[in-house]
Specification:
Blueprint (H helix, E strand, L loop, with lengths): L4 H5 L6 H21 L5 H13 L15 E5 L15 E5 H18 L7
Antiparallel strand pairs: 1-2
């Protein structure tokens, strides 16, 4: 029996895996609508491009923009009160270093709020 994934997961979806990816995209979109839309703003795009030009290497490991993709990171996360456009609160990190830093912040936040709170 051939399964019809479209009937199971909605129009345009072909498999449960695709459905999971769509759910993740919707989660990311709702997060953006919840106050993180600054990353799509012209002001953020200009500032982050300028920082990556001025500092074309990861502040943590030293990899250059020729070796890896670089991102602009908020030293003090926005949810912890960091200023989104203050240059002293921004640093350039490669994706692996940024992910490591974000994971450590998430774990520290979970320890501070073991009941699942986010503040």
């Amino acid at each position: 029996m051939k399964r019809n994934w479209n009937k199971l997961n909605g129009p345009g979806l072909r498999s449960p895996t695709v459905g999971l990816r769509v759910a993740k995209v919707k989660e990311d979109q709702s997060r953006t609508r919840a106050g993180f839309s600054l990353y799509g703003s012209d002001k953020w795009k200009r500032l982050s491009a300028q920082l990556r030009r001025d500092h074309p290497y990861c502040r943590q490991c030293g990899k250059t923009s020729m070796q890896t993709t670089l991102q602009v990171d908020h030293i003090v996360p926005l949810r912890d009160g960091g200023d989104p456009f203050d240059r002293s609160n921004l640093q350039v990190l490669c994706i692996p270093c940024h992910n490591t830093k974000t994971r450590a912040e998430r774990n520290a936040r979970a320890e501070r709020h073991p009941g699942g709170g986010t503040s």
